[in-house]
What we know:
379 residues; mainly beta; Immunoglobulin-like; 6-stranded mixed sheet; 4-stranded mixed sheet; 4 helices; 26 strands; flat; transmembrane helix; calcium ion binding; repeat
Amino acid sequence: ISGYSLVVQARDSGTPPLSSSVTVNVDISDVNDNSPVFTPANYTAVIQENKPVGTSILQLVVTDKDSFHNGPPFTFTILTGNEEEEFTLDPHGVLRSAVIFKHMVSTEYVLCVQAKDSGRPQQVSHTYVQVRVIEESIHKPTAIPLEIFIVTMEDDFPGGVIGKIHATDQDVYDVLTYTLKSEQKSLFKVNSHDGKIIALGGLDNGKYVLNVSVSDGRFQVPIDVVVHVEQLLQEMLQNTVTIRFENVSPEDFVGLHMHGFRRTLRNAVLSQKQDSLHIISIQPVAGSSQLDMLFAVQMHSGGFYKPTYLIQKLSNARRHLENVIRISAILEKNCSGLDCQEQHCEQSLSIDSHSLMTYSTARISFVCPRFYRNVRCMC
């Protein structure tokens, strides 16, 4: 307990008795009676041969139960095991290489490291660090090509994470880093540690081919990343049809079914090859395992097919569509829960272009705006 706050009252013996109170704060001064604690108690680390001087090998983690003025900053010292000065230890507890290690020269080093706190008198503790020198990479990283589809409402794309590169390496201790060619950084970024791709705001309609590479420190491998950006037109929202799927997650739909269903859907609803199918959004149905897919079809001449025409086409081809994925319903209007005479209702659809949903898999990522459906009776 670092302190106490007492309320002391003094009362006299008169009639009536009178009193007053005072607050007494008692601070307990800390004595430096706790040694620094390493977490874990001892360490094991690896470094590949031929890594450059200054390569980070290990971060030491030290805590102290004493108050802040009796704890950090800590002073780190390598007591034994570094007679040839192969290692350095900086004031933050980062162990680095001071030479270029060779697996044939030595495969293991054991260091005894001391941590000393800032109290008076100083307290110390020790840990042992085992460093193994392993052979350099012999396997190149492998990465899966990624295709990203972004749907945005005209020039209103806010930016954000749009996908993630999936890469592996058969060398167990390899650390992979990701880079993007510098001239593309005005539109996109790639997180160097985890491969997440970030798009900046205001992307234009079109196709972007990103020059991304993954490196294990020795080998560098290019990755095919293609980004398709489609900007919605307001007229699309007035001519949408919703297909509701049963028992499928957005990620499973994107990764397993989207390409095949899109191809089957085109064959079912397009009157001419030059017509364009636009998937506007996919969104889980709240409180269920269902999934809504919103789409519209643009004629070669520029206009859009009416929902009633599309629904008729879909109804005729429903059995064929369900060979790809199970369909729960085909909706033009959603009067669910409304007691409308003969199910007459008016539906309005709104798009929140600043609330993006990203459904990412290893090979395909789909980024779309959230949509809201509002209905009212026309009785």
